[in-house]
Amino acid sequence: MQNHTAVNTAQAIILRDLVDALLFEDIAGIVSNSEITKENGQTLLIYERETQQIKIPVYFSALNMFRYESSQPITIEGRVSKQPLTAAEFWQTIANMNCDLSHEWEVARVEEGLTTAATQLAKQLSELDLASHPFVMSEQFASLKDRPFHPLAKEKRGLREADYQVYQAELNQSFPLMVAAVKKTHMIHGDTANIDELENLTVPIKEQATDMLNDQGLSIDDYVLFPVHPWQYQHILPNVFATEISEKLVVLLPLKFGDYLSSSSMRSLIDIGAPYNHVKVPFAMQSLGALRLTPTRYMKNGEQAEQLLRQLIEKDEALAKYVMVCDETAWWSYMGQDNDIFKDQLGHLTVQLRKYPEVLAKNDTQQLVSMAALAANDRTLYQMICGKDNISKNDVMTLFEDIAQVFLKVTLSFMQYGALPELHGQNILLSFEDGRVQKCVLRDHDTV
After folding, report:
1. pLDDT tens for residues 122-157?
2. Is 391 within a domain?
3. Is residue 156 a part of any domain in this protein?
4. What does the entry give for GO biological process (predicted)?
5. Which among 4, 77, 308, 437 has the fewest CB atoms less than 10 Å away?
6. How far, in Å, are 48, 139, 246 from residue 184 at the CA level?
7. Digit-coded pLDDT (tens) for 241-282
8. 110 and 10 inside one domain
9. Domain count of the fold of the chain
10. Looking at residue 26, which CATH number applies to its domain?
């Protein structure tokens, strides 16, 4: 059950993210058409349209833009409710004030997303169950914060309540994977992918799979067993691959194996027994309007990009000192007879095995942390990084300075060669030792 504090905290966070997003984008002139004034030392934006007035407390941030001062209440003229203002209510007010514009905004859709986001965040705050493994814990914190600045990030469209319970990393619910047998004649793979790695995953159910295929007059020798996300297995593959299933090019097998936990991306699944080995599989719910697929062309791009990154690291002193990359060259995908790599269908049936640098996986003195996890603002994580319970403001400032210096050094070092990885908080991890950044670890190389 969600407690009152978690509900209020979640509503406040989603409201803050919504207001900041509207201010940043200057939606409906919420900044440019507002009067800027001060009351009792607090800067206010007074936004007025259609005889309605809103007073938004703001501060001028280091990014040279207004942001919502969330310690102060937003005042909506004529509002009589004593309940805290919610993001959905604020959004509806802005829409009502801009009837000439809001017909293009999908108002009801956004309102639904804001309500779901607040509900799920409240649940995750109240039922947060941290794993004992530091790396897994950091993925949970990264998932808890989710994409910063996006008020709808916590909504995963297409999921039911029971799905959130199992597939959100914060709730620490592990689950097995399902299996699809893909005919070898309709499969492609990475240039250096070792099929033994994939087959080792499904060893526990290979004998059963062999028997099930034999019962259909098929031979295991003609197929490769693909791990499949259980949600994808149930809701997507039977429809998207209906023709291929009827032709026995794809055979869905009712078999389960392994014990996995969602990472912050939800597509990449953490092997509970080997947390530095991830299985990345399609999971076709919507997050921020995009289906969480793993298109074949992206994996091919990633393979080439990883080669480039390794070449640059080898030739540059700063990159060699600070940067390591995950091995994402082991991937497999269904491929149609037409070899059309741009077909959306392919992105629904792929698998990638991600391996983190072994030297870090075996180093018990370091903490490998997704940079996005740092935005969750939880003392547990900072205590782990700094190696002490009492964290001072100076400790945090010193840590931030260290992170910023290394991050900028790495970014500029890549840029001098005309290349730049996708360096957002979910794709870059930091290895800390004794409270200092030792390495940056890059993953998801497909958009270099």
Report:
1. 999 999 999 999 999 999 999 998 887 899 999 999
2. no
3. no
4. siderophore biosynthetic process
5. 4
6. 64, 34, 16
7. 999 999 999 999 999 999 999 999 899 999 999 999 999 999
8. yes
9. 2
10. 3.30.310.280
